[in-house]
Design goal:
This protein is an alpha/beta fold and 873 residues long. Helices cover 45% and strands 15% of the residues.
């Protein structure tokens, strides 16, 4: 059986080439390997395409295919299920493609691969040479392919062959009106909105004499035909080389167009698993976030469009090294920790070699984890100086397949250049696409105005003092985290975190001496707390990076740059920083698009392993989503679901899980957060039996009303409302299950017993009150007082939420509003004067006096004295 196919997301060039191939291979079945672009789907709906008689992939028995004809593609990753049969014995593969530089991985025995504007043109000229005729309908379908991939014969990639193919098809009746109808599609409203976002984000940078332009955008759902937008932007802005990256849900789509030969976009897209030719190409990335795609794109562009630089411009410093006595096993752990593939090895005499990841992995495979790296390290390596031309570095690393080149100055190791990061760093201090260089709508003066509007004058002065203190020590000082986020959102927040590019403890101690403050420092983490005379506190930290030894483990901390410090944070909206040094006071720094996500009200992680490294971020995502009324971005939500599916939250210690749960239950609208936890399958990590059923929801909803009522009525009275919600959340659990839940959450033994007894006592007391109310028996105010006087506030609120009887709710309400603070006017001394006998009778008289006062029998001091006299008699 002969089958003709093409790549997934087929376009008109795929269609035209398949039709032409059908004439060359009579009887072959035409089968799409996957979906089609929107313009193609519209075509199939509106045209006479039914005459082509396509076969559906699900109706095809792949085992019967003996010859596979592939058009407009050479990569197995782009042909869907057909990749499953490529290695089938006896299968003959033919390929016809116009991307000669893409060097695909499919082996073929026959076909034509050469440079041309369209694959359809190649096959059309083969039909012409062989004298094979086509009818007007077929000619029209094929003309669509030629016109689409050549931009109606005006793209720079258009060749003479494309014009000759178009002329031949026109002579055979190709209908240009039909071609025009489908090639010149109007943009949809969503495409126009996306185009607007891309134009706003467009950045152009000169790279070795070539203007490279990059634009990016994020949306939570799929929009088709973004290649059209790339082409439009290139023409609208007269760009030399354009790359657009669009995050759509869990995928990132990249489109590329260029006019000049210095940038081969087909090769660049091949690095992302995509394809195309030198002037137009695209790719779909599933394993990286948009931020990671932009970083990889920059690295790839610097590799492919190589500027003339020297080693000192791009070297990485300071250098992480291993001692010669480090074991192979420890070396493997360090390579993983720092995410590098090679590290220099040093001893007392200086650098002696290089150990690479592949050597370490092979040594570990052979059971050599305990031997020192000096036994197996590479001892032959070239040395670069800071002024070594980058071309020589490339020749050593790329040409001779070395992983690392050390850079020495006056015999001292001052930097390294690795194969993976060689061209990642900024040229002349400026990245190709740096979100921090964006034309941000919030400028320094606006930040200054926000501070003056939202912060007390004393707080603004403290921020300026912090900046001046940094200048005196020659240290950059930044306000970071939630304080900056809330400032931009117009939310008051005096919880200030400050980050120092340098020694944070030294800074804190110096500031404290000058301004009469105290300092609590933590040497291990490089952090300190400045405590002002009035008790106001500011947290100070050195810029640092964190790495995780295993999923859910606590992080290990090391010094780093501001950019790396911000990259370790949980979500983009928390990566914003404001410089406080006087000359730059109020300058907003946004490396990772945090401000854009604030504007779009999105919660978005910075990288795909975020929830693997720290699963508590799952709960923080929900907390921020509900507190700020944002939404968790689709890809981030998918990563949460994956973390849940992989049971990474099982690895969380009970205390960390309890801390996050308490934070959520303390939020203003914790019920919505609990609903979200249930929706994402998180409740089972608290207890597998925990269900958010109708009964539990009802108790939680009542708890929300009751807590709001209490806080409004008793503004000054403190209560742990999280405990009320926790008891309500566990409503469906048995006593044993509740005890197990507290154990899982590592609640300390004393408080665990208290919670358990509170829950048990609530049930018992409610049973008493409800039975008495159900019988219609008279309930005295003194009864209510004695039932409830020993119970904590949290338990009383939970009981109000739990009971279904309004009369019982009124009992507890009455206790709060009228009874809990009732006291007698007279005291024991007064009783002594009245001649009351000592002993138990004394206490009994006082209790009866209190009951009489609670029940309204006595109201004044004289009433109490008279009542006491009667009791004594």
């Amino acid at each position: 059986m002969d089958v003709i196919t093409t790549h997934v997301n087929a376009d008109f060039d795929c269609l035209g080439a398949m039709v032409a191939a059908g004439k060359l291979y009579p009887g072959a079945l035409m089968v799409f390997s996957g979906s089609q672009e929107k313009s193609m789907r519209d075509f199939f709906l509106k045209s006479t395409s039914y005459v082509l008689n396509f076969t559906r992939l699900k109706d095809l028995d792949l085992s019967l295919v003996t010859r596979l004809i592939i058009v407009d593609c050479q990569h197995s990753s782009r042909i869907g299920r057909f990749a499953e049969i490529l290695n089938k014995p006896g299968l003959e593969v033919h390929i016809y493609d116009h991307h000669p530089e893409s060097s695909g991985d499919i082996k073929y025995v026959e076909g034509v691969i050469r440079d041309c504007g369209s694959s359809t043109a190649i096959l059309t000229l083969m039909l012409a040479d062989r004298g094979i005729e086509v009818n007007p309908t077929e000619a029209t379908f094929m003309m669509l392919g030629v016109y689409e991939d050549t931009g109606s014969l005006i793209f720079p990639s258009t060749t003479v062959d494309d014009y000759q193919a178009a002329a031949w098809l026109l002579a055979r009746g190709a209908n240009l009106n039909t071609v025009s109808d489908f090639i010149t599609q109007e943009l949809t409203a969503e495409q126009i909105s996306l185009l607007n976002d891309l134009l706003k984000s467009l950045k152009s940078t000169d790279l070795n004499g070539v203007q490279v332009s990059i634009a990016q955008a994020s949306i939570d759902h799929y929009i088709g035909d973004i290649a059209v937008l790339a082409h439009m932007m290139r023409d609208m802005e007269s760009l030399q080389a354009l790359f657009i990256a669009v995050g759509m849900g869990s995928r990132v789509y990249i489109g590329a167009r260029r006019r000049l030969p210095e940038v081969n976009v087909g090769e660049i897209m091949h690095e992302f698993g995509g394809g195309g030719h030198a002037t137009a190409a695209s790719a779909t990335v599933r394993d990286l976030t948009l931020l990671q795609v932009l970083a990889k794109l920059e690295q790839t562009l610097r590799d492919r469009v190589n500027p003339r630089r020297v080693a000192g411009d791009i070297m990485s410093a300071p250098v992480k090294t291993l001692s010669a006595t480090t074991t192979i096993a420890d070396a493997g752990e360090l390579l993983t920790r720092y995410n590098v593939n090679a590290m220099p090895v040093v001893d007392e005499g200086g650098m002696t070699g290089i150990i690479s990841r592949n050597i370490v992995e092979k040594a570990l495979y052979h059971g050599l984890g305990g031997v020192p790296v000096s036994d197996y390290m590479h001892t032959e390596f070239l040395r670069a100086a800071p002024d070594t031309p980058i071309t020589e570095v490339q020749e050593f690393i790329v040409g001779h397949d070395h992983r690392l080149m050390p850079v020495f100055e006056d015999g001292v190791l001052v930097g390294i250049i690795t194969r993976t990061n060689m061209l990642r760093y900024m040229y002349a201090g400026e990245a190709l696409y740096d979100l921090a260089k964006d034309n941000l709508p919030v400028r320094s003066r606006e930040v200054d105005r926000l501070m003056n509007r939202l912060l007390a004058p004393a707080i603004v002065q403290i921020l300026r003092d912090l900046g001046r203190a940094g200048e005196n020590l020659d240290l950059p000082v930044y306000a970071v985290g939630g304080f900056v986020r809330d400032l931009l959102l117009g939310i008051e927040n005096d919880d200030i975190d400050v980050t120092i590019e340098g020694n944070g403890i030294l800074f804190a101690e110096t500031f404290a001496r000058e301004f009469g403050c105290r300092v609590k420092s933590h040497e291990k983490f490089g952090t300190a707390v400045i405590v002002f005379p009035d008790g106001f506190k500011i947290d100070v930290a050195s810029t640092r990076l964190e790495y995780y030894s295993s999923p859910g483990a606590l992080p290990t901390v090391e010094r780093s740059s501001l950019k790396m410090d911000l990259y370790r944070r949980d979500f983009t909206i928390n990566t914003l920083a404001i410089q406080l040094n006087s000359k730059e006071f109020g300058h907003l720094i946004d490396y990772y698009g945090g401000q854009k996500d604030l504007q779009e009200r999105s919660i978005r992680v910075l990288h795909n392993l975020s929830f693997v490294e720290d699963p508590t971020r799952v709960f923080r995502a929900i907390r921020f989503e509900q507190r700020l009324d944002f939404h968790i971005a689709k890809h981030t939500e998918n990563l949460i679901k994956n973390a849940v599916k992989m049971d990474f939250l099982d690895k969380l210690g009970g205390k960390r899980l309890l801390t996050e749960l308490v934070h959520i239950l303390r939020e203003k609208d914790s019920l919505r957060a609990v609903e979200r936890m249930n929706e994402l399958g998180l409740l089972r990590f608290i207890n597998p039996e925990l269900l958010l059923n109708a009964e539990t929801r009802k108790v939680l909803e009542e708890a929300k009303k009751i807590v709001s009522w209490f806080e409004l009525l008793f503004l000054e009275r403190q209560n742990e409302k999280w405990a009320v919600y926790f008891l309500a959340l566990c409503e469906s659990l048995t006593d044993d299950q509740f005890w197990g839940t507290c154990t899982r959450l590592a609640v300390n033994e004393h408080y665990k017993e208290k919670l358990f007894e509170m829950r048990k006592k609530a049930g018992e007391m409610l049973d008493i009150m409800q039975r008495k109310a159900a019988r219609g028996a008279k309930v005295e105010r003194s009864d209510i007082y004695h039932w409830l006087k020993e119970l904590p506030v949290e338990l009383l609120l939970y009981m109000m939420a739990k009971t279904c009887r309004e009369d019982v709710k009124k009992y507890i309400s009455l206790y709060f509003t009228q009874l809990q603070n009732v006291r007698c006017f007279i005291t024991g001394r007064d009783l002594q004067k009245l001649g009351a006998p000592a002993g138990p009778r004394f206490r009994e008289i006082l209790d009866k006096l209190l009951d009489a006062r609670l029940n309204g029998i006595v109201q004044s001091r004289e009433d109490e004295l008279q009542f006491a006299r009667q009791l004594i008699k």
